[in-house]
Amino acid sequence: MAKLVAKTYGDALFELAVEQQTVYALEEEVQGVLLLLQENVELNKLMNHPKITKEEKNEIIEEIFKGRISDELTGFLHIIVTKDRYNEIANIFEYFIQRVREFKNIGLAYVSSAVELKEEQKAELIRKLLQITKFEQIDVIYTVDQTLIGGMIIRIGDRVIDSSIKTKLHEMSKNLSKLQIN
């Protein structure tokens, strides 16, 4: 359900930005507001408190954001509060940012490797990822997972490329267990 809410509202905000030709400006504002909300735990507690009315929450939005961000984004925040979706605001904004990245033709890859990759390896990996994807630019988030033993796992969206030794050993083990020795 949460993903559907993020998609629905994120798509609406993205379509508004495209229609008004403010995609880049709105992306910048959304990133700023998202950062502010992530850093301000007290504001989130206040905005999610059940005893504070929607009207009071909308007044808080006005006080904090009016004149500092675009009227479109302020209005969007009011809609989120009015529809009782404030608890999903981070997911909505993250989904919106993902849509803008796609619009800009920028990919995001998550790479887990057994050891830290050298700069040359990272550059070669990015070059290959650009060749096999439709992206003009790709940002990579690297993590080290020693349980992989060797190789790496690459995740781009819902696509996964798993060349880890751990997975290969697991597959070999499954295949060997299927064999019957007479």
Automatic annotation (TrEMBL):
Pfam families: OSCP. Signal peptide: none annotated. Transmembrane segments: none annotated. Keywords: ATP synthesis, Cell membrane, CF(1), Hydrogen ion transport, Ion transport, Membrane, Transport. PROSITE patterns: ATPASE_DELTA (PS00389). One of its GO terms (cellular component) is proton-transporting ATP synthase complex. SUPFAM superfamilies: N-terminal domain of the delta subunit of the F1F0-ATP synthase. It is a peripheral membrane protein. GO terms for molecular function: proton-transporting ATP synthase activity, rotational mechanism. The keyword Glycoprotein does not apply. It is found in: Cell membrane; Membrane. Its main location: membrane. This protein is part of the stalk that links CF(0) to CF(1). It either transmits conformational changes from CF(0) to CF(1) or is implicated in proton conduction. F(1)F(0) ATP synthase produces ATP from ADP in the presence of a proton or sodium gradient. F-type ATPases consist of two structural domains, F(1) containing the extramembraneous catalytic core and F(0) containing the membrane proton channel, linked together by a central stalk and a peripheral stalk. During catalysis, ATP synthesis in the catalytic domain of F(1) is coupled via a rotary mechanism of the central stalk subunits to proton translocation. Belongs to the ATPase delta chain family. This is ATP synthase subunit delta. It comes from Candidatus Galacturonatibacter soehngenii. The gene is atpH.
